[in-house]
Amino acid sequence: MALIEIRGLSKSFGEVKAVAGVDLDINAGEFITLLGPSGSGKTTVLRMIAGFEDPDAGTIKLNGEDITHLPPYDRDVNTVFQDYALFPHMDVITNIEYGLRVKKVNKEERRKKALEALEQVRLSGYEKRKPSQLSGGQRQRVALARALVNRPSVLLLDEPLGALDLKLRQQMQIELKELQREVGITFIFVTHDQEEALTMSDRIAVFDKGKIQQLDRPAAIYEKPVNEFVAGFVGVSNLITGNAAQTLLGKSGTFTVRPEKIQIDKAQGAAGTVKEVEYLGPSTRFIVDLDAGARLVVLRQNTDESAVDVMSMRGKKVNLSWAKESEYRVN
Ligand code: ATP
Question: Is 18 in the pocket of ligand 1 (CB under 6 A)?
């Protein structure tokens, strides 16, 4: 049995159908990401699981119990918000103990658990600091410790890394994933960042227009997108359609080939012209217009080439080729 079972979940705000019939099973100990563009309904789903929003229709079960209309404090879940929502006048340890104090856990037990949580987020020694005396990443860790200290079955994370700069964000992605493995709590993570979703998740639910478009492991979402939306939102879509599909693939329909699966500058293959060259350091991105009528992005590792070599390819005639199994039908 799944830890969380969501069936037919829907929610409208006036005319806006924010969530339009979502079914989702989440397993115990899983790191699942709700990924989608702004307004796709992922936060509303998270808020309904947390109990901050009441669904118009559908059910949410946790451990077999129907929690659809329970108040937030009666659910065995905790939320970490993007703005951390720490109490500014309380020091770190008091912030972390807060949930336990509300639950009337005695002082000794409280302190012990809070110190444990602080250690888990690698902040031992910071007990007496105020939130204003911490960096963004440290505040984020305190918010995590505060949510973990109650040992909820499920931790809900609403764009928790959104306020951090890129380097710190990437570091926290790794730490967060490690922490999740360590504590074994189910994480439901909301983001609009596809790279973040691919890096961290056991499974990804891709949202658009209030619905789940695809639910699968990161590699499957990336390599076998089920439709044009998923192909375009997770990675570069590289669509081959209409006449181009007939000429190049001998098939009708719409297909996608990921940029790193395409080889450029071979003696044979689909003929085209290099329109743009972007030197990225370890790799180069080429934008190629095929004679058959498709524009494809190609990514190549700079194993032997220098920047001068690759830049000189702009405007050149080239051939592109790829393995048959790298072509995916998306429509
Ligand atoms: P974002 O990444 O921007 O948070 P999202 O995918 O999480 O986007 P939601 O926040 O779930 O999307 O919003 C889905 C739709 O519902 C949007 O069109 C949004 O404007 C609308 N919406 C969400 N909350 C409310 C509300 N309290 N009142 C009115 N409309 C709302």
Answer: yes
